[in-house]
Write a structure and sequence with these properties.
Blueprint lengths: L1 H9 L22 H12 L2 E6 L2 E6 L2 H10 L11 H6 L13 H14 L2 H6 L1 H20 L4 E2 H18 L10 H16 L3 H4 L4 H7 L2 H24 L11 H11 L10 H15 L1 H16 L1 H15 L14 H13 L5 E5 L4 E3 L2 E3 L4 E5 H4 L44 H18 E4 L28 E6 L3
Parallel strand pairs: 2-7
Antiparallel strand pairs: 1-2, 3-9, 4-7, 5-6, 8-9
Helix pairs in contact: 7-8, 7-19, 8-14, 8-15, 9-12, 15-16, 15-17, 15-19
Bound molecules: protoporphyrin IX containing FE.
Length: about 475
């Protein structure tokens, strides 16, 4: 016991803000943890140790420390934390995003990178994206004819949900068991359970009583059952002998083929549960992130008419009177791409990268223990004046002649994460946001609703409810048809 104490004394742990009994730093979490952590880091430094109840969290708030954690010590930090909610909803972590870093994760990652999210596969879904964007533009055009404001937050969610739904299931909402609203409700409920700890996980001995009283486990079971029933039916529909693949394979087709073609020595048997867990990742990773990016971009542009005009001129000069922007055109729209980049700097959909340490290592001279949770504050690093001039200003031009990219090697800019667990959906996420934003800017001019000034656009972030960082209030703008 004495030796252990000596060892503990020798460890130099990162600085911590003062703690209360039992809940420790929980009261400092706030409604928007990335913002609270940024303020705390200004006082306690870029590597801090906080405890939420019994759970130790190391908060990383500088590019240098992020590089140490995500590059030098990537192997020690590429686990994800497994919570009651995530374990249940991912069929005991059979997905990719929450699977522990092991052979199974490697197998799933290979499937995702080579089969599901490869450039070739992403291109094969191009007709879905272009088709859904076109029908959205038609709907918005009707609002333009009657000069009615459009709720872009709702429209963007509906767009990306329809795209992901068709990619995954080869089916449109209409005629399926879920309509758009039911789907959104299910996604929100799932996110609630994926995103948080149970009280028992944070607070020992008494936490379980609170979970019992607020019906946590019963509600979790209900959401799981709803998701499972839906996935089960979708997979069974794909197994019907009369089903013929029309045109392009969808994600379930690809996964079922992998299920049939296996098994390579040493690899896990792919079952229906694996397929369901991967489908869940695609919903949670693919819908909100791209939608939110477009909404933030449009909000920033509505507040900056000069930038909006510049973007529209670039697109309209390139497209002329063609009627729609297609995915072939995107590479000729560098300013549009810079707008997306700048949006992801100021409004990263995942403001905190969440990892779990597997073994001891040091960052900035501080000891980090195994089984600690790491949160890299991508949001704070993206607004740090040390790396960004006038960081609060939305200024896409800052990316002109700038080699910063999304691949996770620029540690001052990590919207898709970094290292072994970097987002495998980068191509889908980017092209979906780009094609949607390009068409919104090409097809319409955008005015503020009567009585609203550009300074009135609410840029506050929403707290809770969604895994991705969305805008607190919906963005309503009035479209004016450009092409008549
Ligand atoms: C703008 C769009 C998107 C953003 C900003 C984004 C961001 C992220 C981030 C920050 C991570 C964690 C990376 C890390 O820990 O280093 C992640 C992981 C992941 N993302 Fe995305 N994502 C986007 C779109 C997508 C799409 C479209 C999909 C799938 C269709 C997807 C699927 C995933 C999966 C499966 C993981 C877990 C990877 C693993 O743990 O190995 N994401 N994403």
């Amino acid at each position: 016991k004495k030796i252990m104490q000596v060892n503990e004394i020798k460890l130099q742990l990162p600085p911590s803000p003062p703690q209360l009994p039992i809940i420790r730093n929980l009261h400092q979490l706030g409604a928007l943890p990335h913002q609270s952590f940024m303020k705390l880091s200004q006082k306690y430094g870029p590597v801090m140790l906080l405890k939420f109840g019994r759970i130790p969290f190391v908060i990383i708030s500088s590019a240098e420390a992020a590089r140490e954690v995500l590059k030098i010590h990537d192997l020690n930090t590429c686990n994800r934390v497994q919570l009651t909610g995530t374990r249940k909803l991912t069929y005991n972590c059979l997905d990719l995003a929450f699977a522990p870093y092991d052979d199974y994760w490697r197998q799933m990652r290979k499937i995702c990178v080579l089969e599901l999210f490869s450039l070739k596969r992403v291109q094969s879904f191009r007709f879905i994206r272009e088709g859904e964007v076109a029908s959205l533009m038609d709907t918005i055009s009707q609002s333009a004819s009657s000069a009615t404001p459009v709720d872009l937050s709702e429209k963007m969610f509906a767009l990306t949900a329809s795209i992901v739904f068709r990619m995954a299931f080869g089916q449109i909402f209409q005629g399926s068991d879920l309509d758009n609203h039911k789907f959104e409700k299910l996604i929100r409920a799932t996110e609630y359970f994926m995103g948080g700890f149970t009280t028992e996980e944070c607070i020992p001995y008494v936490g379980w009583i609170i979970d019992r009283l607020n019906g946590y486990h019963a509600k979790l079971e209900k959401v799981f059952h709803e998701l499972d029933t839906f996935f089960e039916k979708a997979i069974n529909d794909h197994l019907k002998p009369e089903r013929k693949i029309q045109g392009q394979e969808d994600i379930i087709d690809v996964m079922l083929k992998i299920e049939k073609d296996q098994i390579k020595p040493g690899e896990a048997q792919i079952t229906k549960d694996n397929i369901k867990a991967v489908l869940l990742d695609i919903f949670l990773g693919g819908v909100d992130t791209s939608a939110i990016t477009v909404v933030w971009a449009m909000s920033e542009l509505a507040r900056n008419p000069r930038l909006m005009k510049k973007a529209q001129e670039e697109i309209r000069n390139c497209i002329g009177k063609k009627g729609r922007v297609t995915e072939d055109d995107i590479d000729q729209l560098p300013y549009l791409k810079m707008i997306i980049k700048e949006t992801l700097r100021l409004h990263p959909p995942s403001p905190l990268l969440l990892r779990e340490t597997t073994s001891h290592f040091k960052v900035n001279g501080y000891d980090i223990n195994p089984k600690n949770l790491i949160q890299v504050n991508v949001w704070a690093i993206g607004r740090d004046p040390k790396y960004w001039k006038n960081p609060e200003e939305f200024y896409p031009e800052r990316f002109t002649n700038n080699s910063i990219d999304f691949k996770g090697n620029n540690f001052e800019y990590l919207p898709f994460g970094s290292g072994r667990r970097i987002c495998p959906g980068i191509h889908i996420g980017l092209i979906t946001s780009e094609i949607a934003l390009a068409n919104l800017l090409y097809c319409f001019d955008w005015k503020l609703p009567n009585g609203i000034k550009k300074e009135d656009i609410n840029m506050e972030e929403a707290s809770g409810g969604s895994l991705a960082l969305s805008k607190k209030t919906a963005l309503n703008l009035v479209p004016v048809n450009y092409l008549q």
